[in-house]
């Protein structure tokens, strides 16, 4: 049997293997539109600013568009699979970069664990009436194996799967939205009051933003595919802007349609009495009973797509750290045919399986503990890393010659930084609401994120003393 000749270098991801559409699919699938709208927005309606939720999505979208200005500009000069790690290292120094990388790993791992649990809950609920009575964790394990297999393939393979899932979940929500419009709205007719300042900035906006900001997690992953993208200096910035705009417009439109169905004066009360049925009731009334069944099915595929997207993101973080010697060197190897970080995929899937097993053995409830706690940890972590990236962008362009203007290199990143710090504070003070728990463990999450950062930074300083040659190569830009 002849040995296969590697088609890509053993420590480089396959170049030109993913285009603009695939990257957008990855990012929007990670945001899980159907899950975010059906799962997160009812809580924002109930506990936040009520009819102003669509406007809150617009505010969050504007924040991330401003953040993306400097982020996209820096992506034209920074390549590689390390994404936030590389950006922070280039802008703020190697210790901050490694600390940020550790926080990013915890963040994306937490997202993955949360969605595995939710996937298991939904699949168990869907199959039990059919006679397939199995615990949630078994279906989560099935998903883990399937996701690991998909992650071993060329990145375009996952992109195609994500594209199909994303289009299907967007289609069912658009049908509902259009159906509401076709019926002339609801009891109060059509109104755009959801975008009026008095409605958006009503009491509860801060609480609504806690749920709304969490719905955007994943858009920043565009940069992690820089090493594999076609014309990354153009593709990555375009993908970032397109993804943020798509997510913002879609979320704002879908939540606005829900406001029209129930009426601006009633939507908050209705959401408060039935978070789980909020959108299903509307779908059944507007489209018919078939849409409720389809929506339940597409929720499952939406969750699978979300896991697959974050799996690929995590793989590339592990790969980048392995290639640079911050983790096992084997993690920095790629598949000889598919050009994928397959070793990283095996390792991080094993880590996810162990964490899930620990939750199962402790008897933790998959929804109120595993999903809720891990989601809150992820929102905190991603905001913390985004704050670091904003600082890195400002610092990077202060010391790096560029043709970009002051808006791109200073004003926009500074505005994004202020907004992200504000969002981080809002999430921190509303952790009990976000998780539904006042557990000391939950209240310790902000300190845990800070500790993870300090451990990463400390590890970097340890390397500077003991392995200066390795330290010198940290945050290297691969092209």
From TrEMBL:
Membrane disposition: Multi-pass membrane protein
| Amino acid permease/ SLC12A domain span | 22-468
Q: Which InterPro entries match?
A: AA-permease/SLC12A_dom, APC_superfamily
The record's principal subcellular location, in a coarse class, is: membrane
Q: Does the keyword Zinc apply?
A: no
- Which subcellular locations apply to this protein? Membrane
A Pfam family? AA_permease
From the record, give the transmembrane residue ranges. 20-47, 53-74, 95-128, 134-151, 160-182, 194-219, 239-259, 279-308, 343-364, 370-394, 406-429, 441-463
- The protein's superkingdom reads Bacteria
Its keywords, alphabetically, are: Membrane, Transmembrane, Transmembrane helix
Q: Does the keyword Manganese apply?
A: no
PANTHER family under this entry? AMINO ACID PERMEASE, AMINO ACID TRANSPORTER-RELATED
Q: What's the name of the protein?
A: Amino acid transporter
**Which organism does this sequence originate in?**
Ancylobacter amanitiformis
Species classification: Bacteria, Pseudomonadati, Pseudomonadota, Alphaproteobacteria, Hyphomicrobiales
């Amino acid at each position: 049997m002849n040995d296969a000749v590697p088609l890509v270098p053993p420590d480089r991801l396959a170049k030109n293997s993913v285009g603009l559409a695939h990257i957008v699919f990855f990012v929007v699938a990670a945001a899980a539109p159907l899950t975010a709208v059906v799962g997160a927005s009812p809580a924002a309606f109930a506990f936040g600013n009520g009819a102003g939720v669509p406007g809150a999505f617009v505010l969050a979208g504007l924040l991330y568009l401003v953040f993306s200005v400097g982020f996209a500009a820096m992506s034209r000069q920074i390549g590689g699979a390390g994404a936030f790690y590389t950006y922070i290292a280039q802008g703020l120094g190697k210790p901050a970069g490694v600390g940020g990388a550790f926080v990013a790993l915890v963040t994306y791992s937490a997202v993955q664990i949360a969605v595995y649990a939710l996937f298991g809950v939904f699949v168990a609920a869907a199959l039990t009436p059919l006679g397939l009575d199995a615990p949630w964790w078994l279906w989560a394990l099935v998903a883990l194996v399937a996701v690991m297999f998909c992650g071993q393939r060329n990145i375009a393979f996952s992109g195609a799967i994500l594209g199909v899932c994303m289009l299907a979940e967007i289609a069912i929500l658009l049908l509902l939205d259009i159906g509401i419009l076709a019926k002339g709205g609801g009891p109060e007719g059509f109104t755009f009051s959801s975008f009026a300042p008095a409605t958006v900035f009503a009491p509860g906006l801060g609480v609504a933003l806690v749920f709304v900001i969490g719905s955007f997690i994943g858009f920043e992953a565009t940069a992690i595919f820089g090493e594999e993208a076609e014309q990354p200096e153009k593709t990555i910035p375009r993908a970032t802007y397109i993804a943020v705009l798509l997510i913002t417009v879609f979320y704002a439109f879908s939540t606005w349609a829900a406001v029209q169905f129930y009426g601006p004066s009633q939507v908050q009360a209705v959401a408060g009495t039935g978070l789980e049925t909020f959108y299903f009731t509307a779908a059944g009334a507007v489209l018919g009973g078939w849409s409720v069944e389809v929506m339940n099915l597409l929720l499952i595929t939406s969750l699978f797509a979300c896991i697959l997207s974050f799996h690929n993101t995590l793989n590339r973080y592990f790969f980048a750290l392995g290639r640079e010697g911050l983790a096992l060197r084997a993690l920095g190897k790629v598949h000889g045919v598919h050009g994928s970080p397959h070793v990283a995929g095996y390792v991080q899937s094993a880590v996810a399986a162990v964490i899930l097993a620990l939750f199962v053995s402790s008897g933790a409830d998959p929804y109120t503990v595993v999903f809720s706690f891990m989601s809150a940890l992820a929102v905190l972590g991603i905001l913390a890393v985004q704050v670091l990236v904003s600082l890195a962008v400002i610092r990077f362009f202060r010391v790096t010659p560029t043709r970009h203007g002051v808006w791109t290199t200073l004003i926009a990143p500074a505005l994004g930084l202020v907004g992200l710090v504000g969002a981080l504070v809002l999430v921190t003070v509303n952790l009990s609401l976000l998780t539904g728990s006042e557990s000391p463990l939950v209240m310790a999450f902000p300190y845990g994120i800070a500790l993870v950062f300090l451990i990463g930074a400390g590890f970097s300083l340890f390397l500077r003393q003991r392995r200066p040659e390795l330290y010198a190569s940290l945050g290297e830009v691969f092209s």
